[in-house]
Amino acid sequence: MDTKGHSFLDRVFNILKDETADEVPLIQFKHPKELEEILSNDLDISINVDDKELENSVRKILQYSVKTNKVTFRNQLYGPMDPYGLAGTWIAEAFNTSQYTFEVAPVFTLIELKMIEHILKLFGIPGGDGIFSPGGSVSMLYALVAARFKKFPEVKSKGMQKLPEMTIFTSEDSHYSIIKAAHWLGFGTESVISIKTNSSGQMIVNELNKAIERQLGLGKYPVFVNATAGTTVLGAIDDLEAIASVCKKYDIWMHVDACWGGGLMLSATLRKRLQGIQFADSISWNPHKMIGAPLQCSIFLLKEKGLLHEANAAAAQYLFQQDKFYDVRYDTGDKSVQCGRKIDSFKLWMMWKARGDIGLCKVMDHVMSISEFCLRSIAEREGFRLVSDTLQCPNICFWYIPVFMRKREENDEWWALIHKITPKLKELLTLSSRLMIAYTPLRHHKNFFRLAFTFHPVLEENHVLEILKSIEECGEMVNTDMV
Amino acid sequence: MDTKGHSFLDRVFNILKDETADEVPLIQFKHPKELEEILSNDLDISINVDDKELENSVRKILQYSVKTNKVTFRNQLYGPMDPYGLAGTWIAEAFNTSQYTFEVAPVFTLIELKMIEHILKLFGIPGGDGIFSPGGSVSMLYALVAARFKKFPEVKSKGMQKLPEMTIFTSEDSHYSIIKAAHWLGFGTESVISIKTNSSGQMIVNELNKAIERQLGLGKYPVFVNATAGTTVLGAIDDLEAIASVCKKYDIWMHVDACWGGGLMLSATLRKRLQGIQFADSISWNPHKMIGAPLQCSIFLLKEKGLLHEANAAAAQYLFQQDKFYDVRYDTGDKSVQCGRKIDSFKLWMMWKARGDIGLCKVMDHVMSISEFCLRSIAEREGFRLVSDTLQCPNICFWYIPVFMRKREENDEWWALIHKITPKLKELLTLSSRLMIAYTPLRHHKNFFRLAFTFHPVLEENHVLEILKSIEECGEMVNTDMV
């Protein structure tokens, strides 16, 4: 055996420094086939290379990768990381540890417990339980499993087949993970009832009420309402108090998907937007989105202590021995559907320890203040039109209307053209490396842009103006021949 | 906004260097309450601290954490990491990227595709499909979902309730993830039929045959056979060819859980132990176990191309737009149950690029040669008794019998005492920081030890002898008053 490779670790810092330097472009876009061609030798793994060649390949790979740390990376609901979070994840990776038992992860176990305890209090459900999961979609699976088990504990041994036909309620603007979860868990996607939203993207609670009545009338068993605190596109926060009342009335599990909007809870002034979240039976929150924890950092919380373990435990005797020499209640891994599980709590602990509740409040307030500035700027700016002027989460959705389109009648053809112009404009922005921005249609709305803001160490108002200028300049290059 | 924290990244290397140095003990064990007391200020996150204080807390946390890089860390089926893998994971973390679309992860998408293509060939199912998942248990969920969808595609929309009662077959020594999966997916744990194993821990294929016939007789629908290539405790590899014949005969999906044993496929001589794996419909393999990829690195493979996408796609229009300006077949994320997903393929690419097929073959051969040496040493050594002398994967299971026990009659009381001595001995080894080793009962066997070997940069035969010496020395400290 050799110790080959240890010296490569020393190169990592320099590689990263060079490849994420200020002068490096956001993206050098190449089409898939082109990129395969450029990197064909680098991607080939059958023959080994020496450290110098490896470094060259790594640098080439990073050159063609997206620099998510740039202020102009606005393509997703995440961005650059809190450097404390990155330090935490590097350390956790170097300590290569799995989270299942106290004996292998003594301090990391305590850290996960402490983080969950702190966050449960923050979300208004002290005394509850929770777990770090590998993402919001897995948290959604946890939530549905918990709700189903609470109503029908026999599901664990007997399965779904003898249970009544259950229905699940969610808004039409909610995240698609609930559809995937309904398939996986055996409910079927047709069991998911989509509830209409208002123009801001909030679930219409009266429609929820009616839908539940309708399902009851059909002999179905309503088991789960998924309220969203921060929809993916518009950033809408459902009326959690009103939904809680409905859930209470019908005795239905209330889950709040706060994967995106949960960050607002950190702010003393913004958290009232999630008023009612304390009535939830379960909550999911992804600190890897709004507050810049490194991917993956995702938390699933429940109000009822013990349920998570009861639902998920399999009591593997090779791992969760009951005759260990320490208090085995600290072996928390059997709450999880996973066996091996990463130490995702440590990076969040690092961020929180460095910034404290007050520092994270400031982070959140700054994100929202930039978003408000962006919304106002867009509202005032010629050629930009807002999809919604409600700002609950830091999402701003809008169309850019090039000069040649502005005086025309806004009929179906006009909108059909806007629908094509939006992706074309995105293409120009990407190819020129000026901006990566999301676009999407939504309900009756034709393709529009979504700018979303998350933790960023240097993002200020002038960057927002630069972003809008890029959209204008590329927007004026689009013409009808192109689309 | 500030750039607070960036300078902390510079400290990470020094912290890690000090806290994992040669002279640092494997573990300084403290009981949970004691540890909470020692670290109470460090774990408190409500008030922020400066970088110096943060560093102190981090160092304290690491001091009480387990050093999984030591040769004496033999507690789990993972250990230290390949340094190239660690470099890869550090880089991937710093590039904070999610794996769903080509536009945000152009090169990382190609790397995942290339790695899967290479590994599919290695496992004898070229032309198949695959995905990196957050661990073996999630891979098991993928496998069951795929098998069920293949037989009953209507499950996706209609759920489990109108389907026939399905049964799942697995050996009594297989991993517990199948139990959790059966609950989550709505089969119910009672649908999992446990098949007896022989003394080496391999599924008795004739028993499988009989169990299938019995279930058919009961009107049940056999849907899934889980063969294990590397059981968790004994490291047994089921007779994959024989199981494949049974699956073919009854037209049942064959999954091979090679999470542990899959590493043997890297070795030209060892891979024949998994002969028959090429007949599998799906396979799971965790490179984060035997070959030292950093946690998490887990792969799920299927023989049938396209099925993974068909089963799991939800076609979210905000993410997987079909009017993008590039070939959207490279947006591979809709195959996944996750939305955001870590770049787990890059660390494995780094390892493979640095070592090549030949280098990884050597890694594997070395792991097995050390294990064979350990098995022989234990077989010859007084006071040690093997649970099984078959060595398919690098697991060696044995009892240590202290001198005062050796001449006694081995009746029920004797075994009851051994059952108590084993965990006591583990306690002494842990508290003295000499060795962390796994123990477990299995079937009729009373508590015994499992030594398992994985990639290690410096592990040699003399370390194995040191480990056995530690067991002997601590073993002779145990007396009947202690247990």
TrEMBL record, chains A, B:
PANTHER family, per database record: CYSTEINE SULFINIC ACID DECARBOXYLASE, GLUTAMATE DECARBOXYLASE-RELATED
Family from the record: Belongs to the group II decarboxylase family.
Cofactor or coenzyme needed: pyridoxal 5'-phosphate
Keywords linked to the UniProt accession: Decarboxylase, Lyase, Pyridoxal phosphate
GO MF terms held by the record: carboxy-lyase activity; pyridoxal phosphate binding
SUPFAM superfamilies documented for this protein: PLP-dependent transferases
InterPro entries named among the record's database cross-references: PyrdxlP-dep_de-COase, PyrdxlP-dep_Trfase, PyrdxlP-dep_Trfase_major, Pyridoxal-P_BS
UniProt GO cellular component terms: cytoplasm
Protein name: Sulfinoalanine decarboxylase
Superkingdom of the organism of origin: Eukaryota
Species whose genome carries this gene: Danaus plexippus plexippus
A single GO BP: carboxylic acid metabolic process
Residues bearing the modification N6-(pyridoxal phosphate)lysine: K289
Pfam families per record: Pyridoxal_deC
